What we know:
The structure holds two protein chains of two kinds.
Chain A: H1 6-28, H2 34-49, H3 56-77, E1 83-91, E2 93-98, E3 102-120, E4 122-124, E5 139-144, E6 149-157, E7 162-167, E8 172-178, E9 182-197, E10 202-209, E11 216-222, E12 231-237, E13 241-252, E14 254-257, E15 265-268, E16 270-277, E17 282-286, E18 292-306, E19 309-323, E20 330-331, H4 336-343, H5 345-368
Helix pairs in contact in A: 1-2
Chain B: H1 2-14, E1 29-30, E2 39-41, E3 46-52, E4 61-69, E5 80-83, E6 95-101, E7 108-114, E8 119-122, E9 138-146, E10 149-153, E11 155-158, E12 172-177, E13 182-191, E14 200-201, E15 211-215, E16 222-232, E17 238-246
Parallel strand pairs in B: 4-11, 10-17
Antiparallel strand pairs in B: 1-3, 2-3, 3-7, 4-12, 5-8, 5-11, 6-7, 6-9, 9-10, 12-15, 13-14, 13-16, 16-17
Amino acid sequence: MTNSSPTETHALRREIERVAAEARRKALDGETPTEEINRVKALQDILVALPEKRSHQFYWAIITAAVCLIAVSLAWTVPIRETRVQLDVTTTSVSMRLADSFAWSGTWRIDPTQVRLEHFSNLDLPPEYFASDSIPREGSLDFKVPGGDVRLRDLFVGQGGLLTIERSEASATDIVVQDASAHGDIYVSGTVTGRVGPSLDANLAPKRFDPEWPPGRFGFRYDDGHGALPALLHVKFTDMLSLREISVNGLDFFAERAGGTGNPAFTSQIVSGTLTIIDTGEHVPLSAAAALQLNTHGLVSVLQVTQEGVRVKFEGWARRVELGKGDFARSLKPTIIEWLFHQRKLGFFWSAITVLWGIGWGARKLLSGKD
Amino acid sequence: MRSIAVLALPLLVLGSIPALAQPCPVNLRPVGDNNLGYRHRPAPDRCEGFYTSPVSGEELELLSFLEGRIALDQNPAHSLLITAPDLRALGSPPVTVVARALPLHVYYRMDATLPSGGSMQWPIGEVVLPGGLDPGKIGVIGSIRTSEGNVYVPLRISAPNSHEALRSPSLPEITFRAPVDLEIFQWRLYEAERTVPAWNRYAHAVSEGDPVSLTLDTPAGKEMTLDVATRPSGADYIEIRYKIFRP
Lengths: 371, 247
């Protein structure tokens, strides 16, 4: 037995409809349409007896369903390209790749018993030192002002620079700059003693900067391309340092820790915090040493150096948001369907209604065999 | 000196050396009036006009560095001649000229670039006077870029063809503006690597917006350092260092 073609089946149905219409006409005219009724029954028996061939419509339905399944599966599993994140974290170390130059001006009081600057291309000492011709004007500077007053007054880091702020124990803070120019000023009142030079081998003769007069201004400058050594400002702070509006295109909370003779080990310096995936509203608590790996750009709205550590508040876009390391890293980026659901809730609702209605209607047509 | 004047006179008569092509700062928001708003203007090539600013600056501002200044009339038909110093000793770099209003909250600015020793006609009847600004309340500074940063050079302002422009130069006067009340204003001027002088103290009280003018007895042909230290009321000292050069 060969399968009937859709055209033959269609012709049979048309013939049944035609004969049934003729029977109705006769019945309405008062006649008895026995012949037509028998013919309709015979045609219906033939229609039932014919083996049914799957229509093109059926195959299209299967293909459409498969495409929909694949699309939904992809949307369910593939993450969006970038997600918006908000970060409020306390850490002992943060590194920022600056998207724009950063300039800070204010007053940050630092412990006068220990101030160290390393690897600067120019040290602009107060003119009171002019008489000391032998003093080097580059390299490092280590000084103290017992009983005096020391303040960081200005700090500038150029675009593209890597700015690292690291707070160690005992309130010591390192500000490290590389890959860009940087400069700043430290104001000093009191009697300054210390050493200066590439190897700190020249003594600074004691100089007194009377607190009643303008302070001594120790300028420092680091030129991009000065060398591989980053510029370092090492201080112990007495006040909180608060920096605002730092535009970054990289944020990192890892620091290298000496691990003997093996490979260098980078460990997360996060103390605590919360990561919020703005696109989904998901809040992820960050515990100590949480291995948060970000590929991000945005704005550090506030960075505060406090006794508790370095507090960083950040908002931006992230291409990579992972928590954990190696095989245990999990991406926190939302999938396309999660993003759609959270971003376009009303649209998602109506889309779901439309899709379900379409599926139901299509299935009804398919199963009933009607066009 | 007379011979120098005779040699210089033809330069003034025949016309000044044109100003260099001037890009305008893009971050200034001009006022609504297009005639008075800050924008590029030809003849001479410059950016000039009034702009709006949401906040005032917080730092001491250097607004004027001039070598003598004649009395300025208010005739709209007149213009003023801004002359840059001859900087052959420094390799004849171009001089960046910035004019700004001295009163606080008056946001007028004119940017131009002059060649070393060049000058420009500043048509005060085009923007300054229609904007209601007294030319005498505008500060003008000139600076050059070096690898060590900006070096400020004194400009001269005169009426065109004025014989006053040819007089022997007087000592330059530098003018600052404080955005807040100052308890103390001090300065010292010295040559690098020489014995540093003691701080001078400005004798007058300085209130918010007051211009602070100093006459600098600076030697010709030497780059000098001007340290300025201010202490706003109830705050810490702020020090600013300027490099200046008088040819």
